[in-house]
Specification:
The chain has four helices and no strands. With 90 residues, the chain is mainly alpha-helical. Helix content is 54%, strand content 0%. The chain is globular. The protein has one domain. The relative contact order is 0.13. It comes from Halococcoides cellulosivorans. InterPro entries: Arc_rbn_hlx_hlx, CopG, Ribbon_hlx_hlx. This is CopG family transcriptional regulator.
Amino acid sequence: MSGADANDPDPEIDRINLRLARSFLDVVDETWRERGFNSRSEFIRHALRDAITHPEGAGFWKDLAISEADLDGDVIASEEMRSTYGHDDE
């Protein structure tokens, strides 16, 4: 579902659906909690802004998406992802 929802208090905000492998979503959830974000949505908005603001880091996100496809149910800890790709907490 995308587009404005009549029940949303802010008509300027659109809601989107995002499909992720359960194992990857587990990593996303672990990461946003470790980094102190208030919610999954807040973390994903931050990640998207970061990808747009710093396109030179797009390789990291592309590699992350590829790793999601390769997981096949295996979970990779966020600490391992950070050490592998050199992406530090801000």
